[in-house]
């Protein structure tokens, strides 16, 4: 016969569809009150709801003999409950030093990895952790203290992907009372009583002070706030996704991840959603989000009102550049700086330019008496030049200071930078555009234009045909 606490947990699981028939639930069991309560709750429901339970215990190697006793307790408990149990031994102190993490962070990562390993190797479909309502209140307070936005107020969600928290509907007091009523013995972890960890300081000092001096229901009210924040956040996330589809485009190039944001379309987006959209854009370009702060988002929004070509640096090596139509965010792929130096062209012959992955084929032709100008190929990536005019060895490269090209038959010059600006070529595209150069004189910008100085004329004797293709 189920009591009211057990019914409350079952209803919470069903409400959020945490577990369905034929699931295999991997549950972390430390031996402490919360995880032991979770194990008993799941075992009490497994036949009724038709799912399997697998336990996972991680010995952190910190508490010596006490940790070994916890391990034996969990193994014996699982035998009594007929639950398969996987044990992991990890040196969390060593891991924390190597990764330059706190013990708290390293322990959390180690447990997560262990649970996911069991899930992969033993056919798990869900991973259950013993977070309860007070844990959620502590998380929200911790997020507020460290500096957070609306997402941080959401706290711990009942479920996210394969991770579920069946005890989130219970308080710590309800869990302890239920264990006492059932006369279930659990392990005692002395480190949970220490204030070395930030969360413990909130648990032992901040939250009790709020409940004693401000309101006895502080933890419950903070938890309820997180539930409201979750609903608001889900709405905003949906609107942000709509704005992303309308305003942004992502491209995974050989040179890195590029996110383009349309300035004209951004004008139609609600100001509140703009901030979330820009955060999403930075996150997509960076591949990470943790160090993206409000100051970075504000800087990108300000960039929309600045001159074309202005740029700012963002976390994780991302650069945001103002373009003619909006902003481009780019994070260069690691190791892509190699191979960008000029490459001398083989004339005649084939040359590979590793920085763009293009092949440059050069052919020398003698100009015959019956040569006609209309026979010169007019394709964007195949051009003919007066070879005898070339002063130096031709090279394939990116732009450099002092580059220019001839814009007419009289030899008038234009700086390459001015040409790109006039043609509204985005700055980040200019930096990665292949050029065929004769010293500082740009012979050809493939796909755009060639210098007037190298056109074939009446005095031309040798013709250089250059064809550019993709691939080595």
From TrEMBL:
Its EC number is 6.3.4.19. InterPro entries: Lysidine-tRNA-synth_C, Rossmann-like_a/b/a_fold, TilS/TtcA_N, tRNA_Ile_lys_synt, tRNA_Ile_lys_synt_N. GO terms for cellular component: cytoplasm. The keyword Nucleotide-binding applies. GO terms for biological process: tRNA modification. It catalyses: cytidine(34) in tRNA(Ile2) + L-lysine + ATP = lysidine(34) in tRNA(Ile2) + AMP + diphosphate + H(+). The keyword tRNA processing applies. ATP binds at residues 30-35. Residues 394-466 form the Lysidine-tRNA(Ile) synthetase C-terminal domain. It is found in: Cytoplasm. It comes from the Bacteria. HAMAP family: tRNA_Ile_lys_synt. Ligates lysine onto the cytidine present at position 34 of the AUA codon-specific tRNA(Ile) that contains the anticodon CAU, in an ATP-dependent manner. Cytidine is converted to lysidine, thus changing the amino acid specificity of the tRNA from methionine to isoleucine. Belongs to the tRNA(Ile)-lysidine synthase family. This is tRNA(Ile)-lysidine synthase. The gene is tilS.
